[in-house]
Every structure is written in C-alpha cells, then in structure tokens.
Design brief:
Radius of gyration: 22 Å
Strand content: 25-35%
Number of strands: 16
Shape: globular
Number of domains: 2
Number of helices: 7
Order of helices and strands: EEEHEEEEEEEHHHHHEEEEEHE
Structural class: alpha+beta
Helix content: 10-25%
Largest sheet: 6 strands, antiparallel, barrel
Distance between the termini: 46 Å
Amino acid sequence: MSDPLAIAAKPAPGAVAVTAGGTGAASSEPVAAVTPAAAAVSETAPVSLEIGTTIGATLIAAAQGGPVVGSRFELRFGAAALSPGESSLAGTIAEGAAGDTIVESAMGALALDRRLSLAPGTTIAFQLSGTSEPSHAELPPSLANGWQALDQVLEALDKSAPGVAQQLRAALQPATAPALAATLLFMAGALYSGKWPGEPVARALNAMGHERLKARLDGDLGGLRSLGKDGMTGDWRVLTLPLLMGASVEPLRLYLRRKGGAAVQDPAGQRFILEAELSRLGALQLDGLVRETRLDLVLRSHVALPRELREEAAALFRRASAAAGYHGDIVFATAPSFAVDPMTELRGHVAVQI
C-alpha cells in the first residue's frame, strides 16, 4: 500500500478533518469524518485530508463552455494537487441525496463514485488524472435514449442470480396501464429516496465480482437524485425513471412543477409531463392535467402519428381512465420542438436527440 497523500482543504464553518488510506480501488464505504471538536483543529490551520486514492466522478451538470454532461473524470487527491497547474482545481462539497457526494467546481457539478463524509461547504483541492467524454451510449440516463449500466446489470444477474433478475424485471415492466402508473409512483419514491434497486441486487453484484458495474449504476442513480434537486432545470423538477421496454431499459423523464417555484401553480389542477424517446416513433411528450376525477392529456410528437396508432392510444386511454375512476380527453399534436424542455441547459454543446 502506498503512503497516503496529504492535501489542504479550506474548511467552511463546521469543517471536518478526514483520514483514510487506500490503494486507488473504488469503494462504496464512506470515508469517516471527525468533528472539529474531536479533531481540535484551529480556525487558521488547514484541514488535513489524507486519502491516498483516486476517485472516479461523473459530470452531472455542466458549466457553459465546459465538458459535456456525462463526462467521466479521475480525481486525484494528493500533494500534487496543491501545485499550480492547468489541471488543478478547487471544489466545494454540495448537499446531495443520501449517500451521494457532490462537488461543485468550475467545470460544473461532479458526482463522486465514492462517498466522503464532508460537510456541505467544505472546500477541497484535486487534480484531474484522467478524463473522457461520453459516447452517445455512455450519456447519463437523464440525457440518453437508453440505460446502458442497468441493461448490463440485468444481463449479469440473468447469468448468476436469475431470481434477483426476475424480481428486478418485474418491477421495471408493468403488464397493464394502471400498473404502469403504480410502477412510476413506486420508482419515484424508491429510487429518489436511495432505496432502489435494493440490497439483494447489490449483494448479488458484489458476489459476482461486479463491483465496478455496481459503482457505475450507483453513479447513475446518484446523478439522477442530484438532478432532481438541480435548479438549472428551472421551474420544473426532473425525475428520470427506468422502464423495461422489450429487452432494454428506457429512461422515462417525468417533469413536475417545483413547489414554491417562480411558475404560477395552476389552481385548476396538477400538471405533469412524461417524455420518452422511442426507436420507431422518436420523441414523445405526454402533457397531463389532473383535476379531481378528470384527466386530460395532450400527446405531442415531432412527426404525425399514424391514424391507427392514435385510435389505439385513445381507446387505451379511455379504458385505463375508466378503470382508475377518471374521465377526460386525449388529443394529439405535432411540434418541431417541445415548449416545456427543462433539460435544455444541461445538454451543453452536444447535440442530443431527446
């Protein structure tokens, strides 16, 4: 094991001292924190952070003109990070979802693969030891048309833990329209509270030696939870939910009005928007308004949908609404671009069709 490296970190109020050893391997265990009282650190002395490891990170929100969302970095925390240089950066620990460590930097927001028990507001220094921009398939699920890491998790579980794979597939593939609504509600609660996909999946992946795949999925999920709190999406909160369609997982984006946001809440009901990219039909956006027992939908697409498909969708809507105790109408519209598009600012300078 190499000797730990030390770097200086400027503490915010309530800063902490952290000590950890490592060999460079990723870990899901948090680095232990020491309170200021226990560490007896003076206000003028730098906080010592000894970790001796390199931590992977994913860019989940990009600064203008910087690397694109989904870019991967290796952050090296060590003495060299204190030397002036083009790749030396400072970052600030930001508040993230439970179990996630987010670093705000000049490049944007970085979700670390490894958790650090540092208080929000703590300033750290790091150096980039490796960078890579994502291919289309490697984009985060919030921007991509698929979910590569989750597809690979299902494939791995099919081979070595088929029972766990079957349970995971059942949760991602509802059989009926009412079940779809229940599935989305369940996923919104479980995924964004940090309880999904759960311990059985984590244990199975670790037992098969797929720690890197598990870390990649954890990174995806951490990025989605952070995006749900990101103010860059404006008045709309963005939730990305997995849905198994055929043999692959497709990300479904759910847009909800932020509570207390600048947008005026519609006093007549609750508005929501579902958006997905389908291989044959392209981008679809389902704009809904719920008012007591009435549900009205507008299904938007960039190109006109075939008449047979519109008729089938309208019949399905009426059956599903009646079964759930709702009534209402569905209309179809075409538009070259969608009026509600909270992901615009996060796409950076990469052309991504969503």
